[in-house]
Amino acid sequence: MVLFAAGQLFINYKHGVVFSPFYHYGMYSDVIKVYEHYGVFEVKANGELLAGKDYSPQQWDKIITPLYYYKNIRENSNKMYENDIERLMKALHLSPDEKHYVQTCDEASFISWYKRNLENITGKTIQDVHVKFRTYSYSNAVLQPTDTVYSLNQLCP
Fold first, then answer.
1. In angstroms, rounded to a whole number, what is the distance separating the alpha carbons of residues 46 and 117?
2. Helix, strand, or coil here: 150?
3. Is 1 helix (H, G, I), strand (E, B) or coil?
4. What is the largest CA-CA distance in the chain?
C-alpha cells in the first residue's frame, strides 16, 4: 500500500508521466471554454448530408479530420519545411528543394482522393461530394447556423 501511495505521489509530482497502474488524475480537469463562434464542416455525398451519429467515432474522424488538414495546409503544414527542413538542409550545405516538402492546395486532387476515402468508410459508391465550412454562433445555450459559409477553395486558396 505504501509503494502504491509513493508511486501515485511521484506521478502527481511529475505532471504528465503516466504508466499503469499510476495515473495523474488532474490531467483532464481544465475548464472547457465556450466560444462565441464555432466552425463546422458539412459534407454532402450523393446529395445526402453526412451526420456523425450515423458513424462510429473512428469513422467520423476519418471523414472530418482530412478536411481540417486540407483547410490548414497554408497555416500549418509548410511550417515544418520553413522552420526545420530548410534550416537543417542549409546547415548540412545541401540545397533544399522546396517542391519535395511544401504542400499546395489542389482541390480537384483532394476531392478525388476524398471520394475514394468516403467510399472506403461508407461502403457506398460516391458520385459527388460537396464540402462546406459553416460558422455556428453560440447564444442562449444554443448553436445556431450563421450565413457565413466557405467552400474548400475559399479555405485553402
1. 14
2. strand
3. coil
4. 63
Per the confidence metrics, is the pTM higher than 0.85? Answer: no
Taking only the tens place, the pLDDT of each residue in 90-141 is 777 777 666 666 667 788 888 999 999 999 999 999 999 999 999 999 888 8
Query: How many residues would you count in the chain?
Result: 157
Q: pLDDT of 25-81, one tens digit each?
A: 555 567 778 889 999 999 999 999 999 999 999 999 999 999 998 888 777 666 666
* Unique residue bearing C-alpha cell 499546395: 104
Distance CA 60, CA 134 (A): 17
Find where cell 546547415 sits. Answer: 91
Residue 134, φ and ψ in degrees, nearest 5: -110, 140
**Residue 157 to residue 153: CA distance in whole angstroms:** 5
Sheet holding 142-151, edge to edge: 48-49, 37-45, 129-139, 142-151
4 Cβ neighbours under 8 A, 6+ residues apart: 21, 22
